[in-house]
Amino acid sequence: MPEEAAQELAHLIRLQAVDLERARLATELKAIPNDVLYVANQLKAASAQVATAEQGLKREELLRASQELEIAGLKTKSARHRKQMDTATNATQAAALEHEIAFAEKEIARLEEAEFLSLETSETLEAELAKARQLAGRLSETLADVRARTEARTQEIQALLGTLATERETLRTALAAIGEGARLAQYDRISKRGGTGLATANGQQCSGCRMGIRAQLWMQLRNGEVLTCESCGRIQYVANEPEVPRPQESTPTDAALGGASIRRRS
């Protein structure tokens, strides 16, 4: 392969590697905020659990305060009715007072049972609150750590993209000066359509579209030519294959030679 053609191919190969790396880094950079958003959403959910548990505790506290006031009122009313029993003038009046006392005692028992259930609910909510606060604390630390790491990675990627952009411009400038940039234009056209503009030919097959290569073209590629794939239009070439060391020819050993000489003498 002529030196200029070899240089052009080397530039194209490197340009495609740079373009693919830039695309990969750009995709990674775009996805970085998702890591922060994921942890932030988890923290938001944990904070909501904290708020719900706190509201539940306040609600139960207010409920028990209301129940205690109602119990105190019923006890006062029951005590007053008991005193009135002592001064009841007839059976009807006494029966009415007994009915009121029984109703008050029944309500007191119901309210005390409800108050006990409220205390149990509060215990459950307190456990949930402690768990939610612990989780929110861990997630808050995790979020800070993720933000720090993603910020560092963002800066690293941006620096890499800057370096690759500089190299890319250098390669494109060099390629534009070879053959009036025909190969570069072909590379740009195909890579925009298929993601890559170059493809290696391996095993009489294009690595870009996996289509077979005609025998005549395959021989040209094996001879070092750079062609265009008839199926996908990619710039096609055969990658340099590592040389396989040839097995050394066996030579007669000294012992064998000695044996032969002995036979000849005999």
Report what the structure shows:
It is a single chain. This protein is mainly α and 266 residues long. The protein has helices at residues 3-86, 91-176, 182-194, 215-222, 254-265, and strands spanning 198-202, 205-206, 227-228, 235-237. The protein has a four-stranded mixed sheet with strand order 2-1-4-3. Helix 1 runs antiparallel to helix 2. The radius of gyration is 44 Å and the shape is rod-shaped.
The CATH topology label of the domain at 28-176 is Helix Hairpins
Structural class: mainly alpha
Per CATH, the class of the domain at 28-176 reads Mainly Alpha
CATH superfamily of the domain at 28-176: Helix Hairpins
Q: Using DSSP, what is the number of strands?
A: 4
Strand arrangement in the largest pleated sheet: 2-1-4-3
- Proportion in helices: over 70%
- Report strand %: under 5%
Essential attributes:
single chain; 266 residues; mainly alpha; Helix Hairpins; four-stranded mixed β-sheet; 5 helices; 76% helix; rod-shaped
